[in-house]
Amino acid sequence: MTAAPHIPVLRDAVVASLMPKSGGHYVDGTFGAGGYSEALLVAADCMVWGIDRDPDALAFGAALTARFPGRLTMIEGNFGDMDRLLGDRGVRAVDGVALDLGVSSMQLDRPERGFSFRADGPLDMRMSHRGESAADLVNRLDEAELANLIYELGEERLSRRIAAAIVRARPIVRTAELAQVVRRVMPPKGDGIDPATRTFQALRIAVNDELGELTRGLSAAEHLLTPGGRLAVVTFHSLEDRPVKTFFQRRAGKTPGGSRHLPTSAPSRTPSFRLLSNKPLVADKEEIRINPRARSAKLRAAERTAAPSWPKTLDLGEAA
Questions:
Q1: Cα separation of 73 and 148, whole Å?
Q2: CB of 93 closer than 8 Å to CB of 227
Q3: How far apart are CA 179 and CA 198, in angstroms?
Q4: I need a surface site. Which of 42, 100, 207, 283 has the fewest CB within 10 A?
């Protein structure tokens, strides 16, 4: 395979979960540098639809499209709209969908994109190059709004302290500036994790509406998959993994454990997915050695049943 700046995490496990077949149609909803798409195209004589909101990702797709003429179609857009994007191109059903959530290495490694504090750059973080940037949020939100954002999307206990420091230091327009502001008010932990990590995560998720996109994407995949089709999702932190786990459990007809106060109730909808495993797959030691980003990765996968899709408006936390 050709070299790429982004190493696809759990690539072989994702491909094995999707079981690509000759003549099948597959969606790589987070194309990035095309690692999953390439693996699917090599594994079977299939068609792949690569979706990415980042225009820079389309440049990587051009070379791969040339290698597999007529088999890879690139689409600029959000994976949460995959059913509409493919429907506009006459595709109403697919045999598999792969999603690799979060930020890609090629975004993190380019300082001008503003995703990382490892090198100074503009405080941007927009995957699509459109809409409000991280700098816009940092300088517009009031202290309470900033604290809530950092606490909820960064799971940062000291969010109020960080928000107060940010407000005192505004305006902040560079990644190095923001990182230094956070580091000055955060106690050292000794775990090797930069104190600014959670704040940067929170801003990135907010700027790109990543959790809303995930909700829409899971439902869109459910509507697009043919019976027997498979959905494989790779997550990197609990904020991503929880809704994916909940989605699969609910759609597979599983309900939370009951208690004497709140007995377990049977689902009122026919399961639209069958879990491929009850626990997520994780990377082995060798993959983590080669690609440290795989350390926190979890793969959850399920197979579509013949049951009707659940309503898109249904909240992931409800059994309905």
A1: 40
A2: no
A3: 11
A4: 42
User: In sequence order, what E strands does 238-296 have?
Assistant: 273-275
Say how far apart CA 119 and CA 7 lie, in whole Å: 20
CA distance 98 to 151: 29
d(CA 151, CA 141): 14
Contact call for residues 231 and 304 (beta carbons, < 8 A): yes
C-alpha span between 205 and 196 (Å, rounded): 14
Say whether 95 sits in a helix, a strand or coil.
Answer: strand
Instruction: Report yes or no: 319 and 265 within 8 Å, Cβ to Cβ.
Output: yes
Contact 34, 61 (CB under 8 A): yes
The burial class, CB within 10 Å (0-12 / 13-18 / 19+), for 237 is middle
Q: Tokens standing for 153? A: 């999307």
* Cβ neighbours of 145 (radius 10 Å): 12
E strands, the chain, in order: 25-28, 47-52, 72-76, 94-100, 225-235, 273-275, 298-304
Q: Note down pLDDT in tens along the chain; length 320 residues.
A: 344 445 789 999 999 999 999 999 999 999 988 999 999 999 999 999 999 998 888 888 899 999 999 999 999 999 999 999 999 999 999 999 999 997 766 666 676 676 788 889 999 999 888 899 999 999 999 999 999 999 999 999 999 999 999 999 999 999 999 999 999 999 877 777 899 999 999 999 999 999 999 999 999 999 999 999 999 999 999 999 999 999 999 999 986 544 444 445 445 789 999 999 999 999 999 999 998 888 999 999 999 999 999 997 654 444 33
Residue closest to 232 by CA, chosen among 244, 220, 249: 244
Burial class from Cβ neighbours inside 10 Å (0-12, 13-18, 19+) for residue 229 reads: buried
Largest Cα–Cα separation, the chain = 61
